[in-house]
Write a structure and sequence with these properties.
This protein is mostly helical and 253 residues long. The protein is built from eight helices and two strands, in the order βααβαααααα. Strands 1-2 form a two-stranded antiparallel sheet. It starts with 8 loop residues before the first strand and ends in a 5-residue tail after the last helix.
């Protein structure tokens, strides 16, 4: 059986993938993809099938002026950690600011929520070089729903509408299940159980943060937020580890 070259990484075929799109995304050619998969019928690819791809050394996963494949794994991991830690921290920070603006009817509430909803688009931009437009957009939509439901839950809780709040919370967790399942479907190195556990904890902490704010237990709300920050960084690290294992560990240019 053909042994894939050490510089190749495994790639799981996603809906709408074509060989030409993959070749363009990873700065390679259909011929090179075929050469790395001699034991696979590339004319009959299906979603979920694993093939091997290796981009050219100059391929840039993020920005044209930063070649992560040539900087070494330590520098690559540091760069990705910084990128995704920033995104998850912004997720936590702007969620808290949205809670504060909603609870106290601040005049900046619409602007804060608008900024909060930019976070999923920023995740989309960061993930697009690895997973392509379609997948990155799907995840951004799921994250947007997560944030919209969170804001809606705070508004309903503030209004004392317990029945509506309970239904929104149910949908919030349902959305979380979809996020965990989707992440696992695009990266075999992520665990659905681990992501579901982390995201459930994130939801529980965020709810406590909002409840304490509504109850004027401000110090308790701050204490919970300290935990949210730490947990957000943990999710970022898990995300980066999975990306590195899926795309970079096998590339040794």
């Amino acid at each position: 059986m053909f042994q894939n070259p050490t510089q190749a990484f495994p790639y799981t075929i996603q809906p709408y993938d074509t060989l030409s799109l993959l070749a363009q995304r990873y700065n390679t050619t259909i011929y090179d993809i075929a050469s790395a998969n001699l034991d696979i019928d590339l004319n009959n690819l299906h979603t979920g099938q694993v093939i091997h791809i290796c981009p050219e050394p100059e391929y840039n996963y993020y920005y044209s002026n930063f070649n992560i494949l040539s900087t070494g794994m330590n520098a690559t991991k540091l760069y990705l950690n910084n990128q995704f830690r920033l995104l998850w921290m912004q997720h936590a920070v702007w969620t808290r600011l949205a809670i504060v603006s909603i609870v106290f009817d601040l005049p900046d509430v619409d602007f804060v929520i608008k900024r909060l909803l930019r976070n999923p688009k920023d995740f989309e931009s960061a993930l697009k070089p690895f997973y392509g437009d379609q997948i990155a957009s799907q995840l951004a939509n799921l994250l947007t729903n997560h944030l919209v439901l969170a804001a809606q839950l705070v508004k309903e809780a503030k209004a004392g509408n317990e029945e509506a709040a309970a239904e929104t919370e149910r949908r919030w967790y349902e959305n979380t299940d979809k996020i965990a399942a989707f992440l696992v479907s695009i990266n075999p190195y992520w665990s659905e159980e681990e992501w579901k556990s982390m995201l459930y904890e994130h939801l529980a902490l965020t709810k406590s943060e909002a409840v304490y704010m509504l109850e004027k237990r401000y110090e308790d709300s701050i204490t919970v937020y300290d935990t949210i920050e730490i947990q957000a960084l943990e999710m970022a690290d898990v995300m980066v580890e999975g990306i590195i294992k899926q795309f970079l560990n096998h590339c040794t240019h």
